[in-house]
Amino acid sequence: MPSTRSPRGSRTPRGLLKPYPLSPYADRPPLETPALTVDGLLFARGRILLVQRGRPPWKGRWALPGGFVEIGETCERAVAREFREETSVHVRPAGLVGVYSDPRRDPRGHIVTVAFRVARVGGTPLGGDDAAEARWFSLAHLPPLAADHARIIRDALRQGTRTAVRRRTLTPRAPRGRRV
Fold this sequence. Notes:
Blueprint: E1 5-6, E2 9-11, E3 17-19, E4 35-41, E5 43-44, E6 47-53, E7 62-63, E8 66-68, H1 75-87, E9 90-100, E10 111-122, E11 131-138, H2 149-159, H3 162-166
Parallel strand pairs: 4-10
Antiparallel strand pairs: 1-2, 2-3, 4-8, 5-6, 6-7, 6-11, 9-10
């Protein structure tokens, strides 16, 4: 059985990942870096889809669907995966809302989140994974939210609702001008 290579190591005939030697850095301590998460914001008709957290921290509080980025995964794929796992709704990233990196934003440690506005592809909201429930909320009557999610929603709303349509392709829209 032939071996195949990956960026992180080599595949053995049994399919197990064997790490490459870390030569010049093997004698140094492991890197200490913040953990990376993603959050998704899905808006529709003046509402936003939120999940009720089923686990600590913030168990029972409402939050944006999201979670940790896995090794080898892009943030864009992670937000689609996490959204699907927590809400049963299939989405695709439609634009970047922002990066939130305050070391005190999460009691578990320094966790940086990349927040995306997402576009719905299909599915019906239903809580799953570590979300006890998924539900639409009016933007005028949001429940108390976990972490800094109220700030993330405010930032997305400041960007405007037309931003979602414009950023579907992640390219800027040409300025409007009068036709001659």
